[in-house]
């Protein structure tokens, strides 16, 4: 179903409410109307399921607190953080070439991954605001030399506080594919269902008793459907009409979730 305001979401009787973040609850530092009351009212069953790959749950929780959203970090599931945890579990001590912001870099090191290797086993591409053309060339060389490519998510953009597009990891993946069209990668970010499945396991909720609220049918909706969870499409209105959904660079990447 579609709604225009999160206060309209039919969540009565739900055991768990999974919710996207950017474009759904917030846009940059802007909090959408009725979001603070929604978060406070449903704090005991609300789970944030986001393709954010700049933060850990702890850093995001602290940042949300500064704009009046109290969200328990134990209920925040992020593509970047979970990708690092999955790599560390599957390949303990692996040599990792990491393109990411400091919270993700610090997490990788704390989990024993070797991030300074000149011969990486795995390349992890998260959101990296300092990514350059030189980095693009180095990443391509690493993959050509045999490193497995893991991408946190394939969103090309997320909205800033004015609703304008901010480049995301999918934009970098598009650049990689422009250079190497045949490149393959794995990803656990939406539209793959991995984060929703993790939320189901951690919450202990029955699929039929959950909802996923998101603003992007191409990511949130596909992930919810793949996990067997009812999707509520939040279509926020602006002065110029409905906002454009965040585009996906690679529609076929929906099947890219799975083992690392």
From TrEMBL:
Which Pfam family, just one, is annotated for this protein?
A: Hydrolase_6
Q: Name one GO molecular function term.
A: phosphatase activity
Top-level taxon: Bacteria
- Signal peptide positions (record): none
Q: List the InterPro entries hit by this protein, alphabetically.
A: HAD-like_sf (IPR036412), HAD-SF_hydro_IIA (IPR006357), HAD_sf (IPR023214)
Q: Which GO terms describe its cellular component?
A: cytoplasm
Please give the name of this protein. Haloacid dehalogenase
> Origin organism of this chain?
Aquibium carbonis
Taxonomic lineage: Bacteria, Pseudomonadati, Pseudomonadota, Alphaproteobacteria, Hyphomicrobiales
């Amino acid at each position: 179903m579609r709604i225009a305001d999160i206060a309209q979401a039919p969540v009565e009787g739900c055991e768990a409410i999974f919710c996207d973040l950017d474009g759904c609850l917030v846009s940059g530092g802007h909090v959408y109307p009725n979001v603070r009351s929604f978060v406070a009212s449903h704090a005991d069953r609300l789970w944030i399921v986001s393709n954010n790959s700049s933060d850990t749950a702890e850093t995001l929780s602290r940042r949300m607190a500064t704009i009046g959203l109290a969200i328990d970090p134990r209920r925040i599931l992020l593509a970047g953080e979970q990708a690092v945890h999955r790599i560390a579990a599957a390949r303990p001590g692996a040599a990792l070439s990491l393109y990411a912001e400091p919270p993700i870099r610090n997490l990788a090191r704390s989990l024993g991954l070797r991030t300074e290797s000149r011969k990486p086993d795995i390349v992890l591409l998260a959101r990296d605001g300092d990514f350059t053309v030189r980095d693009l060339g180095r990443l391509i060389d690493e993959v050509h030399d045999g490193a497995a490519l893991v991408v946190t998510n394939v969103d090309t953009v997320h909205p800033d506080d004015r609703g304008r597009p901010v480049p995301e990891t999918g934009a970098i993946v598009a650049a990689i594919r422009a250079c190497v069209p045949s490149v393959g990668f794995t990803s656990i970010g939406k539209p793959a269902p991995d984060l929703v499945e993790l939320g189901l396991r951690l919450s202990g909720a029955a699929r039929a008793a959950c909802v996923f609220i998101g603003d992007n049918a191409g990511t949130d909706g596909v992930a919810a459907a793949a996990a067997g969870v009812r999707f509520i499409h939040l279509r926020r209105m602006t002065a110029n009409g409905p906002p454009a959904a965040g585009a996906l660079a690679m529609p076929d990447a929906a099947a890219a979730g799975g083992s690392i």
